[in-house]
Amino acid sequence: MPSRDPAEPTRPAPPFDDELIGLDPDDPEAQAFAAHLDRMRQDRPTFTVEGYLDGVSDFADSANRARGGRRLLAIVLVGLILLVAGFLITDALGFVIATWL
Questions:
Q1: Does 84 share its domain with 61?
Q2: Where is this region: Disordered (predicted)?
Q3: Residue 38: which residues within 8 A CB-CB, separation 6 or more?
Q4: What's the total number of domains in the chain?
């Protein structure tokens, strides 16, 4: 029986105890689905630097899990973002140098 002492932290129930009843905990597909449910339940701050970095981390993790066309699309998307960021940085530096010289 779990302790009701407020000084002891309570641990959440494993996903196979409450939501995935009847599924085999050793099945790789069931484990992947349980991991998916855990990712969906994560409550993170969204309007902070940590929230933005967690979003980037989630994108990187999902891009690493992707295969085929989705992985290629993620690589192209990251390449385009880096290309636009490089263009904006060189444009800003060109403006600063042209203004002060």
A1: no
A2: 1-22
A3: 15
A4: 2
pLDDT range class, residue 84, cuts 50, 70, 90: very high
Interacting residues of 24 by C-beta distance below 8 A, sequence separation 6+: 30
Instruction: Say if residue 25 is in the same domain as residue 59.
Output: yes
> Could you please report the per-residue DSSP string of 51-93?
HHHHHHHHHHHHHHH--THHHHHHHHHHHHHHHHHHHHHHHHH
| pTM listed for this prediction | 0.54
Question: Tell me: the pLDDT tens digits for 26-76?
Answer: 888 888 888 888 777 777 677 788 777 777 888 888 888 888 998 999 999
In terms of residue numbers, what domain contains 34? 17-65
Same domain, yes or no, for 59 and 72? no
21 and 57 inside one domain: yes
Exposed / middle / buried, residue 23 (Cβ in 10 Å: 0-12, 13-18, 19+): middle
Check residue 1 and give its pLDDT: 47
